Every structure is written in structure tokens, then in C-alpha cells.
Amino acid sequence: MSRVRNGIAATIAALTLLGACSVAPPGTDIHDPYEDVNRQIHAFNRELDRNVLRPLGQVTAEMPPEITQRVVSFSDNAALPGMVLNGVLQGDIEIAATNAMRFLINSTVGVVGLFDPAGVIGLGEIKTDFGMTLARWGVPEGAFVELPFFGPSTERDAIGRVVNAIIDPLDQVGFPVQSAYERPAWVAEQVIERGSFGSTVDSILYESADSYAQTRLIYLQNRRFRVGQRASDDNLQDDETIFFDVYEAIR
């Protein structure tokens, strides 16, 4: 019950903070009033990637997939209850029902999520989060921000990230081992995926003329597509979409 009360309080606080989000001038596609500070944080995140995440990812890339895939499957499965809750909040029965069934099957038949029998029968994950819930409720994205450790975001998504962590219902519906190892598994997953898509991430962070501008553009394009603000985006390449799935490693 205390978790529910905390979730309600967090949601109210988030909506209050959203009222203070900056508003983009009319006709502005990229609203970045904090660019100077964002660039400093981006430089910090890039050095973190260069010195910690990238080397660790290279190590995991050499590990047997039978090991790394179990970690990724466990982590992905542990995130599903939060997606179910956000599906409900969005009024999207497909998201809620699909992710609920996937969690049930993989947590039981799949041994607390170490294996993915739901995927074998065609029951794939439908990603969502509280930032997308806020978007569904009509909350504007606010300004672009780069967060230390977590990377590119917007004011709306940054607040959504905080609420996601507080209202996560895994403790109530999962096995104790899932709650105990959810966060370590998530960190390990980011390292593993950094290793799996190393060249894609490297091309953006270290080979582009302006890695900050590039990551900002790709993030906003990809995020707007995912929340349904753009029906399609022919300028967003497949490897760039992968990049932001992987770039969560330093978010």
C-alpha cells in the first residue's frame, strides 16, 4: 500500500514539475535552451563511455551468448510489470495484456525470465514507459536535456523516468529473486548491448563531426516516432534506432 501511495505522490509531483517545463517557441523543432550545460554533460557521458562502458562492452562481446542472453532476458522480463501499468494508464489494452501475458509465461515457464518461451510463440514485448504515458495524456515534451549517466532526454521523459522507478510494480507481482536482481541485471544488460552494437555507438559518439548535435537529433526523432508524434521518419536509419536502444547504457 505504501508503494501505491508513493506512486500517487510521485505522479502528482511529476505533473506539478511538468507545469514548470519550458515551452518551445512556435515553429521550433529542436528546443534546447540548456545547450551549454547539456554539452558539458554530454562530454562527461562520452568520457564515461570511453573509459568504462565501452571497454566492459568489449569484454562481454567475447562472452558466450548462452550467458549474456540469459541476463538480457531476465532484465527485459523484470521491466514488463512497469510496462503493463503504463499500458493501463494509457488506456491501451493491447500493451497491457500482451506484456502481462509475456511476463506471466516467462516468469514461470521461462524460469523467472531467464528464457523467453513467450517470444517463441510470437508474444513479443511492446515497449512503453511513463514518459510515453505523459505524451498520451497530452503533456508536451519540453526542452531537450542531457542527463549525467543516463544521456539524452527531454524534460517530460526525465520526469517520467523518475516516476517509472517509483511506481514499478515488480515487487508486488514478481518473485523475490526478480526484485532483488532487477537493477544489477539492468546495468549488466546495458553493458552487454553496448558490446553487441559497439560499432554503431562508436560511429555516433566518436566519428561524427558533432556527437552532441547528432545524438540530440537522433534521440528526438526516435522518441517522437515512438510516442506517435510522427507517423514515420524516413530520415531515421535502422542503425540509428538501434543506437538509441543501446545508448540507454549511459542514460
Question: Could you explain the architecture of this structure?
Answer:
- The protein is mainly α and 251 residues long.
- The protein has one domain.
- The chain is built from 13 helices and two strands.
- Strands 1-2 form a two-stranded antiparallel sheet.
- A hairpin with a 3-residue loop joins β1 and β2.
- The chain is globular and about 50 Å long.
How many structural domains in the coordinates? 1
Spatial strand arrangement across the major sheet: 1-2
The sequence of SSEs as H and E is: HHHHHHHEEHHHHHH
The first-to-last residue Cα distance is: 30 Å
Mean of residue pLDDT?
87
Structural class: mainly alpha
Shape: globular
Strand content: under 5%
Count of distinct strands: 2
What's the number of helices? 13
Largest sheet: 2 strands, antiparallel
Percent range for helical residues? 55-70%
* Unreliable spans: 231-239
Condensed summary:
This protein has 13 helices and two strands.
Annotate the secondary structure layout.
Layout lengths: L1 H17 L16 H26 L4 H14 L1 H10 L3 H16 L8 H4 L9 H7 L7 E4 L3 E4 H13 L2 H4 L2 H21 L1 H8 L5 H16 L11 H9 L5
Antiparallel strand pairs: 1-2
Helix pairs in contact: 1-8, 2-10, 3-10, 4-5, 7-8
